[in-house]
Amino acid sequence: MLRFIIGADISKDKINFALRFLNDYLLEKEVENTTSALNKFIKQVQSLVKNIAKEKKAEYSIEFIMEHTGIYGNLLIECLAGHKVTTYVVAGLEIKNSTGISRGKNDKIDAKRIADYGVRFADKMKPYTFCDQTLTELKGLNTLRSQLVRIKAQLTQAKDDNKKFQSKSLQKKLENINKPIVNELDKSIEKIEFQMLELIKSDESIYDNYKIAQSVPGVGKIVAVAFICATNNFTKFQSAKALGSYCGVVPFGKESGRYKGKDKVSPIANKALKTLLHLGAVASIGGKNAFAAYYQRKVMDDKKNKMLALNNVRNKIVKTLFACIKNKTKYTADYVFSFAA
Question: Is 50 exceeded by the pLDDT of residue 341?
């Protein structure tokens, strides 16, 4: 089987490709990031590879590898799906850490390095799973909601400082300007949340997981939607520990020789999801539930640091959520975590 690897370095306006076969680069090309240009390039690659395989009288495979770049890679992914070409989407940090000591950087070099990664780590890569239309739209709406919430926070959080350091006449002028903007933002956020709920209800599997997720203490509507989007409706991770690591709530040890440091969570995480999870944990320990009792026991009886105990609650929420989803069962206080591996 002849294996042809194409590394793709993606930017907003263009994509640099490097086609690697064995130890040689057969083709390097810069292509506009448009549907027509990408389809034309894919056909060119298929034709080139087919001729080489025909000459060598062997079977062949074509594999495209790219970094995760958000919406900039959507057109390429759609085109590859249309041509039924195997696609891999890898975290940029993972590729960067695999290159060792490297000097020099540009789009052409990056495309080669991505192709090199595909050759060296072929056994570790998993083909990209294409999201259905409902999940894609839900992710888009959730992203827009997050943007509007941040804008609203920027307009409202400085209010206390304004009262202390600005004159009343200026405060009044600023409030008259800000108030209608904030009101419109509230209306837009409410509209987006309504549309997200309608989308969720239109897909039975997403709606079932949405209802199950909300049964877990600390997981409200927004946290449930965020988890559905980040995990592709809970299909992206095979264990609770993997999901917890992605959220940045699982502590890892650090040892070398005689040195043994304290277990700490990694800064490499989905920060947005971690923030929502933190807010959910804070809300849960303020109520009357098993998580609140667990937190009090850690702090009062075990004399644990409050932030450490709070992180334990965050981790417990992830494990509980993962177990409930895998068992297709809503949370109950006496639940047994058979799937929380």
Answer: no
